[in-house]
Design a protein that fits this description.
Elements lengths: L1 E2 L2 E4 L21 E5 L5 E10 L4 E8 L2 E8 H7 L30 E4 L2 E2 L27 H30 L7 H12 L20 E3 L5 H5 L6 E5 L2 E9 L5 E9 L2 E3 L5 H7 L2 H7 L4 E6 L7 H6 L1 E3 L2 E3 L4 H13 L2 H4 L3 E11 L2 E4 L5 E7 L5 E4 L4 E3 L2 H14 L2 E2 L7 E2 L2 E10 L2 E10 L6 H4 L7
Helix pairs in contact: 8-10
Length: 461
C-alpha cells in the first residue's frame, strides 16, 4: 500500500539548479542504504547535503526514537552504486503520468508521481527496518600499481611459506632432520624414484659360464639403523647393482656418483633364501648325479649374511637350518634319488663337515679333531681322517649341520656379535658301490672384513 502525491512541474517556472556531478543522484528526501557501527544495514532518509565537505545527513526511526548521523559521500556511493549513474537523472521511482483530470492543460504541464513506501509500524509505533541485501554491490576502485605490487609480493611469500611447511612435514615423517646424512639420503631416494631400469646399460650380454657369480644385498641391521647409516646400494634389475657414492664439488655442493656393476644374478634385500638358491646352487645339484664335482661358497664381509644364506634364519643365537641352502640342497638330492633315472645307480648319501681355522683343518663331526690335507697319487687333494656319516633323509643332514655349527669357531667383532671366524665346508657325497660318484661342497667362508674391523677381532683365519 502506498500513498501518492502530485508534483506539478511547469515549463514557465525557473529550472532547478543541477547538483554537482560528483554527488550523482543524491537528493534530499530519498532513501539510501546505510551501515551502522555494528555492521547492521537498513534504509534511512537523506535530510541534508553538504556539498563543500562532501557529506550527507540521514535520519531514521528506531524504537520510537528518531536518530541520525553524518556519512561521507564516498561511503554512500559505495553502499548505493546506482546513485552514481548520470544516465538516469530521476532518482525517485517508479514514475507514472498523472490522470488528465488532475491538471488542466496537458500541453503546458507535466506531472510526476512519487511512490513513497509506507512504513510498517509496531504496536508501540516503532518503524521496522527495511530489508537490505547483506552484501551490497560495492564500486570496484582501481588499485595503484604500488599496491598491486605489494599484494603480489605478499602472495608469493605466502606460497613459499606453505611449501616450506609441507617440506618440513614430509621431513618429520620420513626421517629425523637431525640426521647429518639426510641430504645424501634424499638425493638417493630421488634418484631411485626417477630410475628407469629398462634404460640401464648391461656391461656384457648374459652367457652361460662354468662359474656363476651372484650378489645379494642385505638390509640395514639394528646397529646401522641406530647410527642412521645410509643405504647406498640399489638393485634396479636382476643382474645389475648400483653403488651411490657421495661427492663434493669445489663450491661445497654435494652430488652423487652412481657406479654400476653387472653380475650373473643380483638379488635385493627382499629376496628370500629360496629365490637365491633357485639361481645359484640348484642348477648344480643334478651335476653330482652325473659324476660331477660342484662347489657353492658364500664370500663377503663380516655381517654381510653369508651364514644366514647358507645355514638359514636366525632367532637370537638359534638358527633355523630348514631355510638355508644346506637344507634346500639336501631336499633336491633325496628327491632326485627317487627319480627313475638315478634310482638304478644304487647311490648312497654321506655328509662331512670340517673347518679351516688358523691354517689348520678340524673335523666338526668328530670333536674338532685336527686333520691333515695331503695330495694323493692322482694329484687330488684329500683330507686325511675326515669322518663321513651316512644320511638317509633331510632331517639327518640338518642334524649334522647343527652339530658342526655348534663346534665352529666364532668371535665377536664390531660388526657381528657372533661372527664366524673360520671357513666351514659341508660336503654332500654320493657313492656307488663304495666308490666316489659325485660331491657337492657348500662353503661358508670367514668374513673378509675391512682393516677397521680386524683390529677389534682375532686375526686368525
Amino acid at each position: 500500500m502506498a500513498s501518492q502525491f502530485c508534483l506539478p512541474v511547469s515549463p514557465r517556472l525557473s529550472p532547478l539548479k543541477p547538483l554537482k556531478p560528483h554527488f550523482g543522484d543524491i537528493q534530499v528526501g530519498i532513501y539510501v542504504a546505510i551501515q551502522r557501527s555494528d555492521k547492521r544495514m537498513h534504509l534511512a532518509v537523506v535530510t541534508e547535503i553538504n556539498r563543500e565537505n562532501s557529506w550527507v545527513t540521514v535520519e531514521w526511526v528506531e524504537k520510537a526514537v528518531k536518530k541520525g548521523k553524518k556519512i561521507d559521500l564516498e561511503t554512500i556511493l559505495l553502499l548505493n552504486p546506482s546513485l552514481d549513474s548520470a544516465e538516469d537523472p530521476m532518482p525517485l521511482s517508479p514514475l507514472a503520468p498523472a490522470p488528465s483530470s488532475a491538471i488542466g492543460d496537458q500541453s503546458t504541464a507535466t506531472k510526476r508521481v512519487v511512490m513513497i513506501p509506507q512504513k510498517n509500524k509496531t504496536a508501540s509505533g516503532d518503524s521496522l527496518d527495511v530489508r537490505v541485501p547483506s552484501k551490497p554491490c560495492l564500486m570496484k576502485q582501481k588499485k595503484s600499481p604500488c599496491l598491486q605490487e605489494i599484494e603480489k609480493v605478499q602472495k608469493q611469500r605466502e606460497k613459499r611459506r606453505r611449501l616450506q611447511q609441507e617440506i618440513r612435514a614430509r621431513r618429520a615423517l620420513d626421517v629425523n632432520t637431525r640426521n647429518l646424512n639426510y641430504e645424501i639420503m634424499h638425493m638417493i631416494e630421488e634418484y631411485r624414484r626417477h630410475l628407469d631400469s629398462s634404460k640401464i646399460s648391461v656391461l656384457e650380454p648374459r652367457q652361460e659360464h662354468r662359474i656363476c657369480v651372484c650378489v645379494r644385498k642385505r638390509p640395514l641391521n639394528q646397529r646401522e639403523t641406530t647410527l642412521k647409516d645410509l643405504d647406498i646400494i640399489t638393485v634396479p634389475s636382476d643382474n645389475v647393482v648400483m653403488v651411490h657414492e657421495s661427492k663434493q664439488k669445489v663450491d661445497l655442493t654435494r652430488y652423487l656418483e652412481n657406479q654400476t656393476f653387472c653380475f650373473d644374478h643380483a638379488f635385493d634385500d627382499k629376496a628370500s633364501n629360496e629365490l637365491v638358491y633357485q639361481f645359484t646352487a640348484q642348477p648344480l645339484v643334478e651335476s653330482i648325479f652325473r659324476k660331477g664335482m660342484a662347489t657353492c661358497f658364500a664370500y663377503g664381509q663380516t655381517g654381510s649374511g653369508k651364514t644366514y644364506t647358507m645355514g638359514g634364519d636366525f632367532a637370537g643365537r638359534a638358527q633355523d637350518h630348514s631355510k638355508g641352502i644346506y637344507a634346500l640342497v639336501a631336499q633336491d638330492v633325496f628327491l632326485l634319488l627317487r627319480n627313475s633315472i638315478y634310482e638304478k645307480l644304487d647311490l648312497k648319501v654321506y655328509g662331512t663337515f670340517f673347518e679351516i681355522y688358523g691354517g689348520k683343518v678340524y673335523d666338526l663331526l668328530n670333536w674338532k679333531k685336527k686333520l691333515q690335507v695331503l695330495e694323493d697319487g692322482n694329484q687330488q687333494i684329500q683330507v686325511v681322517g675326515l669322518q663321513e656319516q651316512e644320511v638317509c633323509c633331510v632331517e639327518e643332514v640338518l642334524n649334522l649341520v647343527e652339530i658342526g655349527n655348534s663346534c665352529r669357531t666364532s668371535r665377536q667383532t664390531s660388526v657381528n656379535a657372533h661372527s664366524s671366524r673360520s671357513h666351514a665346508v659341508f660336503q654332500i657325497i654320493l657313492k656307488s658301490g663304495g666308490k666316489l660318484h659325485g660331491k657337492f661342497s657348500l662353503v661358508d667362508l670367514a668374513g673378509n672384513e675391512r682393516g677397521a674391523d680386524t683390529t677389534k677381532a682375532s686375526r686368525k683365519r
